[in-house]
Design brief:
- The structure is a single chain.
- By secondary structure, the protein is mostly helical.
- It folds into 2 domains: 120 residues, Four Helix Bundle (Hemerythrin (Met), subunit A) (Up-down Bundle), CATH 1.20.120.1200; 45 residues.
- The protein is 75% helix and 0% strand.
- The protein contains 6 helices and no strands.
- α1 packs antiparallel against α2.
- The radius of gyration is 20 Å and the shape is flat.
- It catalyses: a quinone + NADH + 5 H(+)(in) = a quinol + NAD(+) + 4 H(+)(out).
- Belongs to the complex I subunit 6 family.
- One of its GO terms (molecular function) is NADH dehydrogenase (ubiquinone) activity.
- Its main location: membrane.
- Composed of 13 different subunits. Subunits NuoA, H, J, K, L, M, N constitute the membrane sector of the complex.
């Protein structure tokens, strides 16, 4: 339990520190690394609090999908070609160090496991992914449809602005 508490506080510090560093980063790839380390530390916090489902969803959805999409967008976007990758820069060393610390924290969590409080949880209902999905598409159906419409509108706007930028560069 003592080790899990230490890992929890380290993950809290890393989450806040990475989010703070994300505000002042100059290069987009470094920003993606800070965002990745912040999301990874947040998933460790979920696991320490006894929510393995949220831990897995955080890893799969945010780190596995959203961050990878950000990295692909950054790699495919036309940035200036004069910037070089220098391992001596602190902007590169800090995110890599944070990710190494978080990876070691995950290994520690899986070897020790989350510790649950000694109180009785007879009134707590265990919710699985099937019940979460059915609740989202029955009770919160309107909210899901509004969010999907908002995301579709944002995607159409990005495509429209990207086409206008291409037309202006061609002229």
């Amino acid at each position: 339990m003592f080790l899990l508490t230490i890992v929890f506080y380290i993950a809290c510090i890393v989450t806040a520190g990475s989010a703070f560093c994300l505000l002042f980063v100059k290069k987009p790839m470094h920003g993606a690394l800070y965002l990745t380390s912040s999301m990874l530390a947040l998933s460790i916090i979920f696991y320490c609090l006894g929510a393995p489902f949220l831990f897995a969803m955080q890893l799969i959805l945010y780190i596995g999908a959203v961050i990878v999409l950000f990295v692909f967008f950054i790699m495919l976007s036309p940035l200036d070609k004069t910037s070089t990758f220098n391992l001596n820069e602190m902007n590169t060393v800090i995110p890599v160090g944070i990710i190494v610390i978080l990876t070691l924290s995950i290994i520690t969590l899986f070897t020790t496991g989350p510790s649950m409080p000694s109180t009785e949880f007879s009134s707590i209902q265990i919710i699985d992914s099937k019940s979460v999905g059915s609740l989202l598409f029955t009770h919160y159906k309107l909210a899901i449809e509004l969010i999907s419409t908002l995301l579709l509108a944002a995607m159409v706007a990005v495509i429209y602005f990207a086409k206008n930028i291409e037309k202006n560069e061609a002229e």
